[in-house]
Amino acid sequence: MNSLKNFDNEIYNLATQELNRQNEYLEMIASENFTIPAVMETLGTVFTNKYAEGYPNKRYYSGCEYVDRVEELAISRVCELFSCKYANVQPHSGSQANAAVYMALLNHGDTILGMDLSCGGHLTHGSKVNFSGKNYQSFFYGLDENGYIDYEKVLEIAKVIKPKMIVCGASAYAREIDFKRFREIADIVGAYFLADVAHIAGLIVAGEHMNPFPYAHVVTTTTHKTLAGPRGGVILSNDEELMSKINSAIFPGTQGGPLMNTIAAKAVGFKYNLSKEWKEYAKQVKANAKIIADVLIKRGYELISNGTDNHLVLVSLLNKDFSGKDAQFALHDAGISINKNSVPNEKRSPFITSGIRIGSPALTTRGMKEKEFEFIANKICDVLDDIENKEKHLQIKKDLEFLSKQFPIYI
Ligand code: PLP
């Protein structure tokens, strides 16, 4: 980073401080990860200079012979990963990907059915503060008394509201999603079925979670969460006609020139996801999340669904006298990054919440296994058990320091 250091010392210093922060704190925000150096290097390549509106071999500018090949590689690799036919790798983010699918498949005012935000759903699944709830008539399904998706209720609601599209996928759901069941429900009511697998994509491509294909009409994902690639989105489908509409909804519908450096980095990330090493990583992500769940349950904490099948746990603090926000701050003092999260039957605002979400992907990328996760999970409980004791939290941060040294990132 010598040219940055010489040209803009302020940004260089901030990047150095951010690297130190990432190294120092134990990153357990379930949606975060550390991408590989090859992906980071690709983001800084000359592809950042190229305008390439359109799609491979159908561009609006000349000089696209190399970026065409890059985009084709990204498409073929991601299709291989998900066993599907068509992909659009241009969405700048997961939300952009979802917006384009909605635009392609729905008309303004159409009815959609998605997962309730406080049960783990995402803003783009119909929230009233998001385009999905402002432009479309949105309804929600939730969880049963055991914390699992209530598929019977999904069908019951779908029969009444007759949605044009059913959306599944979540930001804070710890159990396997039954895509086959969702497709059966969609078929009964004649709806499109969109599976937003942003959180679990890395597990799916490793065979550690059910694949949404061949069940979903359309699949969207981010590339930066469990997939550990660059920040961005992808849209996938087996239906040529739907994909053609979706391509038009991305460009010229909602985006201009694609970020070709990011698309190249997506291709590099997908190559990593196709490796044997990736399968082992995804297995370890699940094993580590299970250890967090086991320790927290043993220490008397209540988990939504009482466990996990994937990369995260959702802890309910409804029975405690402190909030998700209090827990987030206390854990930060102890050197652990997690996020406050709403839980089913939430009584507090989204800024305060009565839950926390804890994930295993980032620390698994650093090489930590069951032994380290058991140690950290016990420290999390020590902090929560004594939430007011700031001195103790700072001592715990010191107790955890050896892990940062033992498992460094970007040496
Ligand atoms: N879909 C799900 C399920 C998510 O969890 C997220 C992000 O948290 C998104 C979509 C949106 O992704 P982005 O932040 O890239 O817009």
TrEMBL record:
The reactions it catalyses are: (6R)-5,10-methylene-5,6,7,8-tetrahydrofolate + glycine + H2O = (6S)-5,6,7,8-tetrahydrofolate + L-serine
Stored InterPro entries: PyrdxlP-dep_Trfase (IPR015424), PyrdxlP-dep_Trfase_major (IPR015421), PyrdxlP-dep_Trfase_small (IPR015422), Ser_HO-MeTrfase (IPR001085), Ser_HO-MeTrfase-like (IPR049943), Ser_HO-MeTrfase_PLP_BS (IPR019798), SHMT-like_dom (IPR039429)
An example GO BP is: glycine biosynthetic process from serine
Alphabetical UniProt keywords: Amino-acid biosynthesis, Cytoplasm, One-carbon metabolism, Pyridoxal phosphate, Transferase
Serine hydroxymethyltransferase-like domain mapped to chain residues: 4-379
- One GO CC annotation, please? cytosol
Q: Which HAMAP family match?
A: SHMT
Kindly list the residues the record flags as site (Plays an important role in substrate specificity).
Answer: 224
Lineage per the UniProt record: Bacteria, Pseudomonadati, Campylobacterota, Epsilonproteobacteria, Campylobacterales
Q: What is this protein called?
A: Serine hydroxymethyltransferase
Role of this protein: Catalyzes the reversible interconversion of serine and glycine with tetrahydrofolate (THF) serving as the one-carbon carrier. This reaction serves as the major source of one-carbon groups required for the biosynthesis of purines, thymidylate, methionine, and other important biomolecules. Also exhibits THF-independent aldolase activity toward beta-hydroxyamino acids, producing glycine and aldehydes, via a retro-aldol mechanism.
Q: What is its EC number?
A: 2.1.2.1
- Subunit structure as annotated in this protein's UniProt entry: Homodimer.
MF terms (GO), sorted A to Z: glycine hydroxymethyltransferase activity; pyridoxal phosphate binding
Q: Which cofactor does it need?
A: pyridoxal 5'-phosphate
User: Which Pfam families is this protein grouped with?
Assistant: SHMT
Residues with the modification N6-(pyridoxal phosphate)lysine, per the entry, are 225
Natural source organism: Arcobacter defluvii
Q: Which gene encodes it?
A: glyA3
Tell where it localizes: Cytoplasm
EC class: transferase
Q: In which pathway does it act?
A: Amino-acid biosynthesis; glycine biosynthesis; glycine from L-serine: step 1/1; One-carbon metabolism; tetrahydrofolate interconversion
Protein family membership? Belongs to the SHMT family.
Please tell me where (6S)-5,6,7,8-tetrahydrofolate binds in this chain.
Answer: 117, 121-123, 240, 349-351
Q: Which Gene3D superfamilies match?
A: Aspartate Aminotransferase, domain 1, Type I PLP-dependent aspartate aminotransferase-like (Major domain)
Primary localisation category? cytoplasm
